[in-house]
Protein: GST N-terminal domain-containing protein
Amino acid sequence: MTDLANAEYTLYSSPFSLYSMMARHTIQLGRTTHSAKPPKDITLKFVNRGKEENLSEYYLTKVNPKGQVPAMTGNVLKQPLTDSISISLYLAENHYPDLLPDEHAAVIKDLLQRFHSVYGLSFSNKNPTPEMIQHNPSPVEDFLKRTDISPEYRKALEAKLKFHNENNGIAFHPDVVAKARADLRTIFAEIIELRRQSGALKTPAEWIFGNKVGPTVLDSHMLPLVLRCIEVGNAELVPQELQLWAKTNEKSPTWEKVMHGRPTRYDPSMGPVEDMHDMMSL
Structure:
């Protein structure tokens, strides 16, 4: 039997990765819930994507073959968890059950899967170059030109490039962007309806299913998603009620522990990410 009380995890994360924020927010919200059964430890491991640490041999072969963040390893995990949905649902199911209440679990999982099927790049960058629209390149292409890498690493890079070409490589195609925008509009409308049904719609700070239910994994993922849409100039995709909800909860103590007052989108004026020491721990 797995001893979850002695579970120790390492969460590989980048501070301004949208999906890393979702995983970190899940942890912060989970810690506030009444039935929390926290693990012994969760260590935050900074992955510097600016220096392409997510494409290192160790990361691709031992942590996440997709070369993305977040990812999570642990002494009770048979294999790493390699995306924010699997990480958040695992933590909810094993440590923070209030984040996935039985009566709403099916709806939560459905909405999570649907908006995570939308490529983040498709709505996070409104001004791709003509070349990116045709084919968004990957630095892996240059890595594969090297002659000093191991066969195992080359194989991992080839798999990563294939994954990229099938996903982020096409993220700026006009039809992909149009579908992403339409899908997000539909999902946001459904969130508004859930808030209406729960009686939370008139109170901006209330969680999606109302304060009697409390925060769920849907809240932990939806807040950074909505904030990112607003910050990159895609606020027109988000109903005004949901914008107000996000801007209100942006000031919450749990979100403060995730971003420490910073926006979700990195800007060079902030200084080097590696110097943001307050973002490097949970």
User: Anything to note?
Assistant: The first strand starts at residue 8 and ends at 13.
